[in-house]
Amino acid sequence: MSTFAPGPSFFRASHGLRSWLFTLDHKRIGLMYLCGIIIAFLLGGLFALGIRVELFFPGETIVGPDTYNRMFTLHGAIMVFLVIIPGLPAALGNFILPMQLGAPDVAFPRINLTSLYLWYIGAALLLVSLFSGNAVDTGWTFYTPYSLNSPASVIPVVAGVFILGFSSIFTGLNFITTVHKFRHPKMTWFKMPLNVWALYATAVIQVLATPVLGITLLLLLAERIMGIGIFDPTLGGDPVLFQHFFWFYSHPAVYIMILPAMGVISELVTTFSHKPIFGYRFIAYSSIGLALLSFLVWGHHMFVSGQSPLATMIFSALTFTVAIPSAIKVFNWVATLYKGAITFQTPMLYTLAFILLFTIGGLTGITLGALSVDVHLHDTYYVVAHFHYVMMGSGLIAFLAGLHYWWPKITGRMYHEKTGQICAILVFIGFNLTFLPQFVLGARGMARRYWDYDPRFETLHQLSTTGAVILGFSLLVGFINLVVSLKRGRKAPANPWGATTLEWEAPSPPPLYNFTAPPELPPIYDYTNLVYDPDEGGYIRRPAQATDTSAAGGEGPGSSPAGEPSRS
Amino acid sequence: MEAHPETNHGDDHGHGFAHVASVKSLILTWGTLMCLTGLTVYASTIHFGSNSMNLLVAMAIAIVKGTLVIVFFMHMRHEKPFHVIIIAAGILFAVLFVSIGLIDTGQYQDDVVWGSYDPGAQPTTSTTP
Amino acid sequence: MSHSAHEDSGQSPFIAHHYDNARHQFEAGKLGIWLFLVTEILFFSGLFVAYIIYRYHHPEMFEYANRYLSVKAGAINTCVLIISSLTAAWAVRAAQLRQRKTLITCLAITVVCAFAFLGIKAKEYAHKFHMGTYWGEDFDPCETPDLTPIDCAERHEGHEAAAGKAEATAAADTTAKPGAEAAAGTGEAAATAKPGEVKLPDRVAAGVPPHTSYFFSLYFGMTGLHGIHVLIGAGVFIWLLIRAIKGHFSPDYFGPVEYAALYWHLVDIIWIFLFPLLYLI
Predict the structure, then answer these.
(1) DSSP readout, A392-458?
(2) Exposed site from A248, A287, C146, C227, fewest CB < 10 Å?
(3) Spatial contact of A30 and A95, defined as CB atoms under 8 Å apart
């Protein structure tokens, strides 16, 4: 029973606050996630700027050491748990996944709404700690025994993150079921967009790893509130065990952050090269491979924590293997670019930035995975730079790429392209200026989470802070550009970029159940039938037999009747 | 009506969605579980040589009971293979977790000072902290 | 959630709008619940990991401590849960075959069993609290598993209360003696004040292994978390019972019963492992 039907856009399908708060529409849910996530990102970013300003001079610049501890803890917790982990799957994934499958919605819309509520509840609990005047100061990793004894307001944050974990689990559960049960009838596994493969692999990690975070945080709460003694050495507990528990989730978690990003990049690199993706199956398999391999390397966060040498060596060796699927993807993306008809719109600029920054981030991860090197670099700025290159330089950049790519589809508006491009370039410059010096800082011995430092590090810190200001400013202008487009942007066509995945067959913005009629499945990553139509300002599909009447200026793809012949 | 690759068609009557358990299989399974419970309690009173043997016996009986519940009550034998893979994967990752945990903690046990910091206990001889 | 298109075809009104048919919805729900069960397995795995690791390194402590637990209570609870598993599985069968009375009976028995389990657990917990075998820092038993008395804070509190009363009545009759009043609050005074009373051995002297509190941390943690899941399951089955009485379930819409039963079986399986690990070996 098809629910596909023409109708007003999903924005106008129903009205009033209640129709949003109690919606079952994955698109509205995705948007509500997006709003929350962007606000959280702003908050986390303010803390980042606070950190960087404080580090501009050695000693106290704007805050004392206790406040500094709270700032980096909140920066980390907000960015990891409220922005990067949910960002791509929950905000963009929720919106795009069903459409890419040709489905009217996700498998469990009510669970989807529950996930959204859980995100907001978790966020509120984090804010409770923030506004308590005694914000958490343990670092986002909550290592014991300090997290057991810290006088700060640890419990709300840990409880909040626990709840956020369930939001993530339910999203993963929903996505896996949707991919299995709601694909277009003709869409076999190897005709799925690579973004779907990536989100599927992410969902597998969310379902398998996040419950372990749940029990870890629950035990931490129980220990802090009731003193049960599993991690507290004075009660016979083992603090290294806490780290095993914590990183068993948190390492796969970083792949929750990067896999959807890679999925977005796979989509964008082919679209903006106007060329089929190179090595589709390799990218698909490497997504699943990465998801599974990610569970085998968690000990590389614990090389100097008291982990045994045996386990340390095992984890170091395994860490090298986990680079392989990522490298496969990078090679495939670059091969896609080769001899492509590359156009440099904003999403593509972010994509190219991603490929470079992810390579740097990934390679520095390998150096950290080498046990002998990590002994010197652990807990230095080298690690900070590494994870910012992968989490922000890759994860967030991909989020921005995807946001700009799907913005026309979501909102029905085109943002101002020139501004977008300039911001992308400034973000790239600002980001590198912020974090490249940090590799040097770390290699020269500057420790992380330190409020004060030796004056010989001052110049590098000042370079980094300058970069952070440029980065923050350009991100802000980039977001404003998007927001302004809501009122002032020109109306978007169904397919502004000439992409081949199913979501571009729907109108921009889509109606309530995504498609006006059961969509015909176009051949994936096949650009031969897409023609730019200047009247529409976007691409349309030219029928297989090119007759003189069906040249440019034909109907838009979104309104083609179901019976129109199409290539299978 | 759209055909989704994972679903079968032609079933608007409602039956045939899933295997219906027979009363016999339910009662038999239940009876076996009750007997095995009695057996495991009884077996815990017998000393099988070493404490690890007792543990092994108890775990073996528990695994049998668990398997009965999964296969018959949860009709796993009539389930789609993918669901079996999901559960197997979950158990596999849990085993991975515990294995590495055991390996690592085993390696550094010699460094652990166990027993000197028991709060509330008043040792009869003074112990070095 | 109803959609007229589905009602037209004679199907249950509970088929959601975005599903093709009842079977599509059922199968999607099935996949969803199996995925959820995997998350539950991994959720509990953390506690089992802690148990296994500590037991492996300190078996003598576990073997001593679990003698504090009542095998009878644990065995009864195991039987209660197995019975409820039977009725849950039978309820699914009844829903599939449109046997409304059987369905309602089975769901009701499942709920009763769930609460019976919780009741027995509550009694066990109360006994543990009375004996002083709490978790972590509060672990302070007043007797060994063989019922040999041990010196514990609660005994001193008892004496304090008695001594306080005696002193208060004495002080009311005579003029107050400041030193004695001050001493009345302390255990030492109480312990030494009464002639003829035997000084009890402390925990270590009585042979309680160090960090036995750890066993109880795990005991309360694992059975507590399990108990929360039993409580949630009971709530779910009450909701199903109400829906069954209203006649919501039919051969093409029995998903909720099936999914809840699967959850319940997992709860049962977890207890099947907890029982021997905590009570028997």
Answers:
(1) IIIIIHHHHHHHHHHHHHHHSB---HHHHHHHHHHHHHHHHHHHHHHHHHHHTTPBTT-S---GGGH
(2) C146
(3) yes
The DSSP string of B90-109 is: HHHHHHHHHHHHHHHHHHHG
d(CA A78, CA A84): 9
Cα B40 to its chain centre, rounded Å, is 15
Residues whose CB falls within 8 Å of the CB of residue A459, separated by 6 or more in sequence, listed in order? none
Q: Is B53 helix (H, G, I), strand (E, B) or coil?
A: helix
* CB contact A467 to C (< 8 Å): no
Residue (of A220, A71, A227, A243) closest to A155 by Cα position: A220
Question: What are the tokens at B109?
Answer: 């046990």
pLDDT in tens, C55-83: 988 888 898 998 999 999 999 999 999 99
- The SS3 call for residue C118 is helix
Which residues of chain A are within 8 Å of residue B101 when distances are taken between CB atoms? Answer: 241, 244
Per-residue H/E/C for C229-240: HHHHHHHHHHHH
Asked if the model's pLDDT at residue A567 lies above 50, the reply is: no
Residue B116, φ and ψ in degrees, nearest 5:
-95, -15
Contact flag A311-B114 (C-beta cutoff 8 Å):
no
Question: Alpha helix (H) ranges present in B23-108?
Answer: 23-45, 51-68, 81-108
Beta-carbon contacts of C210 under 8 Å, excluding residues fewer than 6 positions away, are: A236, B114, B115, B116, B118, B121, C61, C204
C25 vs chain A: nearest CA distance in angstroms? Answer: 8
Alpha carbon B125 to its chain centroid, in Å, reads 43
pLDDT of residue C197: 64
Tell me the C-alpha distance between A447 and A449, whole Å. Answer: 7
CB atoms closer than 10 angstroms to residue A309: 12
Entry field: residues in chain B: 129
Structure tokens at B100: 């590495």
Contact C5 A237 (CB under 8 A): no
Categorize the per-residue pLDDT at C9 as very low, low, confident or very high, splitting at 50, 70 and 90: low
CA distance A390 to A377: 17
The dihedral region occupied by A341, where left means phi > 0, alpha psi between -120 and 50, and beta the remainder, is: beta
Q: Count other Cβ atoms within 10 Å, centred on residue A188.
A: 10
How confident is the model over C119-130, as a mean pLDDT? 95
> What 3-state DSSP class applies to A9?
strand
Q: How far is A158 from A129, CA to CA, in rounded Å? A: 10
d(CA C211, CA C234): 35
User: How many angstroms away from the CA of B126 is the closest CA of chain A?
Assistant: 17
C contacts of A205 (beta carbons < 8 Å): none
Report the alpha-carbon distance of residue A506 to residue A498 in Å, rounded.
13
How far is Cα C31 from Cα C54, in angstroms, rounded to an integer? 35
A117–chain B nearest CA distance, Å:
27
B81 vs A: CB within 8 A = no
CB contact at 8 A, C58 and A204: no
- pTM score, whole prediction: 0.89
Q: Is C86 close to B73, i.e. CB distance below 8 A?
A: yes
List Cβ neighbours of A257 (8 Å cut-off, separation of 6 or more): A84, A85, A88, A390, A391, A395
Amino acid at A397: I
Alpha-carbon distance of A393 to A398, in angstroms, equals 8
Residue A447 bridge partners (DSSP): A380
Could you tell me the pLDDT band of residue A544, with boundaries at 50, 70 and 90? low
What local confidence, expressed as pLDDT, does residue C187 receive?
39
Give the residue from B1, B37, B48 with the most C CB atoms within 10 Å of its CB, the best one to mutate. Answer: B37
Q: Distance (Å, rounded) from C-alpha A108 to C-alpha A124?
A: 25
